[in-house]
Design brief:
Chain B: It holds the Pfam family IBR. Chain B: It catalyses: [E2 ubiquitin-conjugating enzyme]-S-ubiquitinyl-L-cysteine + [acceptor protein]-L-lysine = [E2 ubiquitin-conjugating enzyme]-L-cysteine + [acceptor protein]-N(6)-ubiquitinyl-L-lysine. Chain B: Keywords: Metal-binding, Repeat, Transferase, Ubl conjugation pathway, Zinc, Zinc-finger. Chain B: InterPro entries: ARIH1-like_UBL, E3_UB_ligase_RBR, IBR_dom, TRIAD_supradom, Znf_C3HC4_RING-type, Znf_RING, Znf_RING/FYVE/PHD, Znf_RING_CS. The complex is a heterodimer. By secondary structure, chain A is an alpha+beta fold. Chain A is built from four helices and four strands. Chain A has a single domain, classed as Ubiquitin Conjugating Enzyme (Roll), CATH 3.10.110. A four-stranded antiparallel beta sheet of chain A has the order 1-2-3-4. Chain B is mainly alpha-helical. Chain B has two domains: 227 residues, Four Helix Bundle (Hemerythrin (Met), subunit A); 161 residues, no CATH class. In chain B, strands 1-11-10 form a three-stranded antiparallel beta sheet. In chain B, strand 3 and strand 4 form a beta hairpin. The chains are: A alpha+beta, B mainly alpha. The interface between A and B is medium-sized, with 18 and 19 residues.
């Protein structure tokens, strides 16, 4: 199984290097281990995250692409769908099996036909449109809902900090 | 005084419990063996080698022990009296099923729904799965949404089945595994085509989720026939199995798995309304699966009467919290009070005879056995030492009180486990009866029945200490309860002792004794259970933190 995973990851990497969508850079952390990737995600324009470049880590399971990878922002960023430890919670990263409430549609869930590129694009759209109904960071949810200017200010401040200002 | 020679390794042995050490202690032959009449210490020893002395024993017992006399008339089988008493509670209606049986009944329902949907059964099966086998909800949604429901459930509505199925080997690039090889492929009507290996891995991964398996790229559902076609075998059975399992998990109010290891039975309680009546009366819903495992439907624990689920829960939690090692220390080895030789108990009876110094003592209190043999079993009474001083419970005193009840509880638990081992030998005994003295199978059943009664008595006794612990010790009913414990304790010990006899001849000779003692245990058990329930109902015994 892990041979399939390696082959598939290699293929995805080639694909990404050939032509990747704007705002996304991703690749394995080291040549020896294809199962941990580093990614850079650009903050989408017209959002509080604009101008920011965010670093994230993708960890692939051995049975990839049957199971989805895990995405963690390092360092974590303030966002309703990102946990304090940086872990991202969006539907594409869950397999259809583990949602007892049928909250998310099956099409939006992980399946073997999804890919790294699709995940990262989903993350970008998550940055522009947070889903506060199934939030991971409750404080961020409340701030986003009740005091948008303060939320944006805090995001901007942390972006500047991360860029060394 | 009493001749307590056993015909086998009656009570105990040294720590190494291989069978050879047993034979060293044993009396050599069956014919020389004499009886165990410890419960009737006032009866002079009998020589049972002659037939009429056997008759003597029975007669003297009947006349000297009034209590036994009362219950003599009751056979072990359920009496009409039992039946009448059980009527005070609504009777439990339940059935024991397997996942296959539940699935079969689901299939019948699918068949039943066929005219409504006019769809192939496979499709209705998918719909039923989607609605967790709840046909009412399914029908409701069906009348509302019709075709949309089919699309939502991943069923093909176009009516064409072009492109569905496994396709023959060809050169194919699979986007999942990124291999370009000669392989069979599979796709549904949607045309999302992948190599058969990837599909197999994918399905294998999903079989245990108990959910509809869809195409990897869209929501079109795979039917059971597709799954079997891809996997080559009856793999869809597994999916149905896990789907039924998740159905059971969702309906845990009326469906429960038998908690015994490896038991695959499911109990389906038919009228959940009666449950309220049960908890009001502090009775528990004990059910028995078709493998003969009994458990409480409410809490999944073993039979815990007279305690109710709340008391049981509290007691078990407390035991976990406080006394994990106390448990081991108390329940395993002990030293002989006279010669300090290490003793491990290997039989269910509490009447111990040290095989080294022949000292007879009680396993529970460590005291001489002689006073225990009389009509009252002293060990089951917790003696409140500071009865006269009404001081507030100091933590130490509370702990000491708890330690006592816990000790009693574990003693009986360990004994019950040993009784269970005894049960394995009872089978051999029955066989021995059949082979050696030509007793018919049905005639030999009194042994198995006695063992069953013993187990029931032991369990009731065990849990009665949980109830007693939470009871107000000054109340009169508590005192009656404790007296009842003593009586049952006595009866259980005496029956347990009887069951240790191994020689088939002796067993047959003393058959009436088995009947009598088992009947007595049965009645005492019932009395204790009723008394315990009274305690709970009247609030004298209350589970507390």
């Amino acid at each position: 199984m892990s041979k399939t995973a390696q082959k598939r990851l290699l293929k995805e990497l080639q694909q990404l290097m050939k032509d990747s969508s704007t705002g996304i850079v991703a690749g394995p952390r080291s040549e020896n281990d294809l199962f941990v990737w580093d990614c850079l995600i650009q903050g989408p324009p017209d959002t509080p995250y604009e101008g920011g470049i965010f670093n994230a880590k993708l960890e692939f399971p051995k049975d990839y692409p049957l199971s989805p990878p895990k995405l963690t922002f390092t360092p974590s960023i303030l966002h309703p769908n990102i946990y304090h430890n940086g872990e991202v919670c969006i539907s594409i990263l869950h397999s259809p099996g583990d949602d007892p409430n049928m909250y998310e549609l099956a099409e939006e869930r992980w399946s073997p036909v999804q890919s790294v590129e699709k995940i990262l694009l989903s993350v970008m759209s998550m940055l522009s449109e947070p889903n506060v109904e199934s939030g991971a960071n409750v404080d961020a949810c409340i701030l986003w809902r009740d005091n948008r200017p303060e939320f944006e200010l805090q995001v901007k401040r942390s972006i500047l900090q991360s860029l060394g200002f | 005084m009493t001749d307590l020679e056993s015909d086998d390794s009656l009570l105990l042995e040294f720590e190494d419990d291989d069978s050879e050490s047993i034979s060293n202690i044993d009396a050599p032959t069956d014919s020389k063996a004499t009886h165990l009449d410890s419960d009737f210490a006032n009866i002079p020893p009998h020589n049972v080698d002659t037939d009429d002395s056997e008759f003597d024993i029975d007669e003297s017992q009947f006349s000297e022990d009034d209590l036994e006399d009362d219950y003599l008339v009751f056979p072990i089988k359920k009496t009409t009296k039992d039946l009448l008493d059980e009527d005070s509670l609504p009777s439990l209606k339940y059935e024991c099923l397997t996942t296959q049986e539940i699935f079969d009944s689901m299939k019948r329902r699918v068949h039943h729904l066929q005219p409504v949907f006019s769809l192939p059964p496979q499709d209705i099966l998918i719909l039923m799965q989607r609605y967790d086998w709840n046909e009412e909800r399914l029908l409701e949604e069906w009348t509302e949404k019709m075709d949309n429901l089919l699309i939502e459930s991943g069923l093909n509505t176009s009516g064409e089945s072009d492109g569905r199925g496994v396709k023959n080997g060809k050169e194919f690039f699979c986007p999942i595994c990124c291999e370009e090889i000669l392989t069979e492929t599979f796709s549904l009507e949607c045309g999302h085509e992948y190599c058969i290996d990837c599909y197999r891995h994918y399905i294998k991964d999903r079989l245990n989720h108990g959910k509809i398996i869809t195409c990897m790229d869209c929501s079109l559902a795979l039917k059971n026939e597709d799954i079997d076609q891809i996997m080559g075998g009856a793999s869809s059975v597994k999916l149905m199995d896990s789907s039924i399992k998740s159905f059971i998990r969702k309906h845990s109010n009326s469906y429960k798995w038998c908690p015994y290891t490896d038991c695959k039975c499911i109990i389906h309680l038919k009228d959940t309304l009666s449950l309220q009546e049960y908890s009001r009366l502090h009775a528990s819903r004990f059910v028995t699966c078709s493998m003969g495992h009994s458990f409480c439907f409410g809490c999944g624990f073993e039979i815990h009467a007279p305690a109710d689920c709340r008391v049981t829960d509290q007691w078990v939690k407390k035991a976990r919290l406080e006394c994990e090692n106390l448990n081991w220390v108390l329940s395993h080895t002990k030293e002989c009070p006279r010669c300090s030789v290490n003793i491990e108990k290997n039989g269910g009876c509490n009447h111990m005879v040290c095989s080294s110094c022949r000292h007879e003592f009680c396993w529970i209190c460590g005291g001489d056995w002689a006073p225990h043999g009389s009509s009252f079993y002293q060990c089951a009474i917790y003696k409140n030492e500071d009865k006269n001083k009404l001081v507030a419970d100091t933590p130490k005193k509370t702990l000491r009180r708890y330690a006592f009840f816990y000790k009693m509880f574990t003693e009986h638990e360990v004994s019950a486990k040993l009784d269970w081992k005894l049960g394995e030998t009872v089978g051999f005994k029955v066989k021995g009866l059949q082979e050696k003295i030509g007793v018919s199978w049905i005639e030999g059943q009194f042994l198995t029945e006695s063992l069953k009664t013993l187990n029931e008595g032991r369990t009731a006794l065990k849990w009665s200490f949980a109830v007693a612990y939470y009871s107000d010790p000054s109340h009169n009913l508590t005192k009656i309860f404790i007296d009842n414990q003593g009586l049952l304790s006595n009866a259980v010990e005496s029956l347990s002792e009887l069951l240790q006899i191994k020689s088939p001849e002796v067993i047959m000779k003393r058959r009436t004794e088995f009947y009598n003692k088992a009947g007595y245990v049965k009645n005492r058990t019932k009395a204790l259970l009723e008394c315990g329930r009274d305690l709970l109902r009247k609030g004298i015994s209350k589970a507390r933190e």
